[in-house]
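ok so for the tutorial part 2 we go from a plain amino acid sequence to predicted structure tokens. step 1 is just haveing the sequence, like this:
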Amino acid sequence: MSRTRLLPNSSSLFSSLEDAKDDEIYNTALTNTFITVIGSSVIGLLIWFYQGAIPCEQFFASYLVEQALSLDNLFVFLLLFKYFEVPLEYQSRVLNWGFYGAIVMRFIMISLGIAAIKSFRPVLVLFAGILVYSSGKMLVDMAGDEEEEEDMSDNAIVKFSKNLFPTTDKFDGDRFFSQVNGVQSATPMLLCMIAVELSDLVFAVDSIPAVFGVTLDPFIVFVSNICAISGLRSLYVVLSEAASNLKYLEPAVAVVLLFIGIKLLLEYVGIDISTTVSLCVVGALLSSGIGLSVLTQEKETT
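step 2 — the prediction. this is what the tokens look like for a chain of 302 residues:
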């Protein structure tokens, strides 16, 4: 599974979330999303108070980058929930375990990444190459078949998940295991959760280097990552209402990856792009992608 063509163009993908569009569920998710954004902003201000303006700018730039790249995770979650037919009332448990697993995996990957950069600086070139490649692949794939939807039955992560344990295709409430003919078998809940965890690991391969392009402060990198993924559960429901209309967000994310990849290459040769400039560029690109999507949608509906 790669970070390509994951933003669906068809609203049919969201059919599994029809019940989630109930006003109470949606409003709760919207409130929780607002709370996580405000909480992240407060953390940014505390960083400014205790560490200064530059670390604060690094935090917000890293947060924006990670939040934008995390959107791909949401749409993969949608695909996985649809494929495994996980009932809406059980999906929150999968998302919770996915969050806990993401914290552990990202802590390990961030620690290893920073250690690698400090001990062998040319690793920056490798990270830059990953970002530029991901950006180019996203843009090329977007120029291809826009209606193509990934077949999850052929997905390597899904196949790997199914080969780990004896499995059953029946749910046993929200349990991960169930007794089937005297055999402890994995339910679709566990298979979906494993697939979610592995998908996040794949995405972290380019999202973490992207944050390294903003700062190498391990505290800033880790906290910005946690702040970004902490709101995914709520965003999952909120974006089910609007994501299919944000058709210019994905190319904006691709350009962000390209910008940070170039920034890493320039940094390697001794040319530094300030955090302030990075924050402005990332913010402008993402805002433009969202704003253009909204304006286009309004014109199409009038």
